[in-house]
Structures are given as C-alpha cells and as structure tokens.
Automatic annotation (TrEMBL):
The keyword Acetylation does not apply. It comes from Artemisia annua. It comes from the Eukaryota. This is Editing factor. NCBIfam families: PPR. Keywords: Repeat. The keyword rRNA-binding does not apply. Pfam families: E_motif (PF20431), PPR (PF01535), PPR_2 (PF13041). PANTHER family: PENTACOTRIPEPTIDE-REPEAT REGION OF PRORP DOMAIN-CONTAINING PROTEIN, PENTATRICOPEPTIDE REPEAT-CONTAINING PROTEIN.
Length: 382
C-alpha cells in the first residue's frame, strides 16, 4: 500500500469515529506522512491527536514525530518535539541529526547537535548511522578540520572502520569534497569492501577538482572490479570530462551509458554534454545535440549554450538561442515565471554586435512587460 493510501484509510476511520487507535497506529501514519504520503499540515493534525490521547511519552512515537517534521522541512517543530521529550533513544538523536545533515543550510546545526550528543549526559551511545550523517554534514560545509576530528573519533570508537562500507564511503566523500584527495584515496585503498557509492564518491572527488583523466582511470578500474556504474556515477564522469575539456571521452561515455549500461539520460547528463561542447567551442554541435535528443524544452540546456555563445562571441548563434529561450512556454504558472535574464542576455548579445537599435527594442519589450533587471549581490564572510 502506498503512503497516501495509508493516510486515506486512517482519515476514513477517524471520520467514522468507530476505531480506537493506539500509539503504534500513529507511528505508522506519521511514517507514511514522512515518506511523502501527506503534507506538513496532515502530520501536524496527527500530532494534535497524539497530544490529545496522551501518547507523547512513547519514545518511538516521539522519534517518529521528529523524523516526520525534519523530512517535511519543519525543523523548528522537530527540534521542539525533540527538546520536550523526557527520554530519547539513539534513533531519536539520529532522526534529528540526519534531518539537519541532509540540508546544507542546516548542516552546521547537525554538527552542533552531534557535539551536544557527545558532551551531554544523554545516556545514549553514538552509532555508525550517527557518524555517517555527521560525515555528510562535514562534506556539505567543507570543514576539513572537523572532518579529521570525526575521523579520529570514528577510529577510536569503531573497531574496524575499513570493513564498514558506509563509514568508509562517508570518509572518502568527506575528504574528497573538502579537497583532500590524498586522504580520500588512502581511505579508499584501505577499505576491504567497496560498493558503487564508494567508487562514485572517489570519481566525484576527482571530477570536482578538475582531474578528469584520473576520474576516467578510476572508472576503468571500477569496471574491471565488477562494479556496475549507476546514473550518479555517469553524472560525475561527464562533469569531469566537461571540466577538463575531454570531448571525445565525454561523448563516448554518454553513448556507453545509453547503449551498454542501459541508463536513461537525465537533465544533468544532457547538461554536462552541452556544457562540454560549449566549452570547446562546438556550439553548432551543442545546438544539434539538444534538438536530436528531443530536450529542446529544457531551459537550463539553452542557457548553458547561451553562456558558451557569449564566451566564444558567437553573436548569430547566441541571438538564435536567446530567442528560443524567450519563446519557451513556462511549465509553471505565469505568475511564478520570470525570464528577465533571457531578455537581458539577448540585449547583451545585440550590444556586443553593436546593434543598438535592437538593444533598444529588447529594452522596450522589457518595459512593456514590467520586467526589471535584478542587481547582482555578493556576500563577503570575515
């Protein structure tokens, strides 16, 4: 049964008022809400019933409430439930920590909560799951010093880190994203068991830091080891080729992904190829690629190509792409759609060619449509 169906059955029973629910019922219903079966408002109504029937003292139910709130983005409510619990299990702590660590904007909150778990008298022991979540948070914020500290704590508390594929993969990912590729490689080589996520984490590390050839070498080693790549692996590989300007290798990988590995390309795969073709100046090929793959409705691809046109000063292709962008019908509501940047890009392209009458015409259209060019904003952290 799908989560939404579970919630509908529960709502039907509530409306008839013929069934008396116990705490386990609410655990399952909140779990269904957390898995996408309902909205934040649906779960809040279930929470009200939990309070009304006096089930908040149940640790499992409280933990499920915390899990539901952080999954649905209600971090303030989730933390409030957590703070008000008289008893917490390691699963309770993990629910809130993992929720924080899954969002970059809350990753530091997850690290602070982890320190609170270590320093306070909470009566629970840090688990492998806790450490995996914390390592992902460190990778998100890019704080190498904190990551080294967590690694040291992991070695002291976990008997055999090398045999735990999830902890090992978390360490590889953390070191790679923090720019310490040598340490990531050391952890990788020390691991006795590696899965597709481990290999992908290492490939991604090389890709992010512009080491395209090393990423391709690792991919070949991965295939020889009998590990089958997935969609994320190819995203990292294509990104690596794009950053390093490896045109033939990138096109070959894209072909193999579709034919040999039977992976259906997604938007980011197409985006990497368009970006790769644009970087090396093959603008006509990028245009034909978008048309031939029947993804001409993807605005991101056209904007990537438009940027390449400006870099290579191809006025004719740039004007063509800009007009396509302007003509694309929005999938969302018209009120929420803002393509001001496309008009600005067209205006800039005309200006580069010295066609000032066309610039004035574009600006006039923008004024008629009530568009305003948003000023750029920069943030400096001391």
């Amino acid at each position: 049964m799908k989560p939404i169906d579970s919630i509908r059955v529960f709502a039907n029973w509530v409306s008839k008022n013929i069934v008396k629910f116990d705490d386990f019922t609410y655990v399952f219903v909140l779990g269904a809400c957390a898995r996408g079966g309902g909205t934040l408002w649906d779960g809040m109504q279930v929470h009200c019933r939990v309070i009304k029937h006096g089930f908040l003292s149940n640790v499992m139910l409280g933990t499920t409430l915390v899990h539901f709130y952080v999954k649905c983005g209600g971090f303030v409510s989730g933390r409030k439930v957590f703070d008000e619990m008289s008893e917490r299990s390691v699963a309770t702590w993990n629910s809130l920590i993992s929720g924080y660590c899954a969002r970059k904007e809350h990753a530091r909150d997850g690290l602070f909560l982890f320190l609170e778990m270590l320093g306070g008298d909470c009566g629970v022991k840090v688990s492998d799951t806790t450490l995996v979540c914390v390592l992902s948070a460190v990778a998100r914020v890019g704080c190498l010093e904190t990551g080294v500290g967590v690694h040291g704590y992991t070695v002291k508390t976990v008997c055999d880190v090398e045999s735990d594929v999830y902890l090992g993969t978390g360490l590889v990912d953390m070191y790679a994203k923090c720019g310490c590729l040598d340490s990531a490689l050391d952890v990788f080589m020390s691991m006795g068991c590696k899965n597709v996520m481990t290999w992908t984490a290492m490939v991604s590390g090389f890709a992010v830091h512009g080491k395209g050839k090393q990423a391709l070498k690792f991919f070949n080693d991965m295939i020889e080891s009998g590990i089958v790549p997935n969609s994320v692996t190819f995203t990292s590989l294509l990104f690596a080729c794009s950053q390093a300007g490896l045109l033939e290798e990138g096109l070959y990988l894209f072909h193999d992904m579709k034919t040999k590995f039977r992976i259906v390309p997604l938007s980011h795969h197409y985006g990497c190829i368009v970006d790769l073709l644009g970087r090396v100046g093959h603008l006509s090929e990028a245009y034909e690629f978008i048309i031939s793959e029947k993804v001409e409705g993807d605005e991101v691809l056209w904007r990537s190509l438009l940027h390449a046109c400006r870099v290579h000063n191809d006025i004719v292709m740039g004007e063509r792409v800009a007009k396509i962008l302007i003509s694309i019908k929005p999938e969302t509501s018209l009120e929420a759609y803002d393509n001001t940047e496309d008009y600005v890009a067209l205006s800039n392209i005309c200006a580069s060619a010295g066609r000032w009458e066309d610039v004035a015409a574009v600006r006039e259209v923008m004024i008629d449509k009530g568009m305003e060019n948003k000023a750029a904003v920069s943030s400096v952290f001391s």
